[in-house]
Amino acid sequence: MSQSLDTTPWYDSESKQLVPIELKIRQDDSIHRDSRWLPKPKKVKQTTPSNNSATNPGATTGGLFGTSFTWSNLFGWALLAVIVMGMVGLTVYAVSRAELRMDNRSSINRQSDSQALPDEHTLERIKHLPPELRRTDVNLRSECERLMGEGRFDQAVILLLGHQLLLLDRSGLLRLSRGKTNGRYVRETRSHHEPIATWLRATADAFEQSYFGRHEIPASVFEQLWRQNELLESATQTYGAGK
């Protein structure tokens, strides 16, 4: 018991007497204890908007609709919106212009390819065509198509046969040479590709009947020849790619 008292702060073991202890009253949490004998803590003053205004007068004064949003803020946001809309508009305009230029360029290239005049090599090969098929001042295919649109099938079939012979010569399906007949060209072609030879034979027959026999070519017959010509062009391109 004596040892236990020696460790306490309120007992002096040497004098064997009690030592008074000065108690410190805590006031910070007394409000939550609802103490009836301790003094109430001082209330902390709450910061009010009026006090903020007093310390910072420019915070709310001069704002729009009673807020801190000022005319300067409104102008800044409006300017930013105009800049963003302008950049978007310029981007859309540039993209649309680029697409339009590409479309025009492709259209011009396609038109140029279909209407280009014969090059030097073609002009040299044209010299080996039969005399009645030689035309060096026009693109044979595009001119044939134009005459077909005008219903001048007797003229169109001449250019159509010349176009096909030049195309097959360029692809190696036949070899143009002065003195060769249409029948020989057909046989040379048949040794490489039977369907192409058949379509060439049909064009040559129509040409001979019109040019030498003075027979009129009906529109339906020439339309059939034109469809076969498109098949001939496609098959010739495939044949050339496979060599």
UniProtKB/TrEMBL annotation:
The chain crosses the membrane at residues 74-95. Residues 167-227 form the Protein-glutamine gamma-glutamyltransferase-like C-terminal domain. It comes from the Bacteria. InterPro entries: TgpA-like_C. Keywords: Membrane, Transmembrane, Transmembrane helix. Pfam families: DUF4129. Residues 46-59 have a biased composition (Polar residues). Residues 32-59 are annotated as: Disordered. This is Protein-glutamine gamma-glutamyltransferase-like C-terminal domain-containing protein. It comes from Stieleria maiorica.
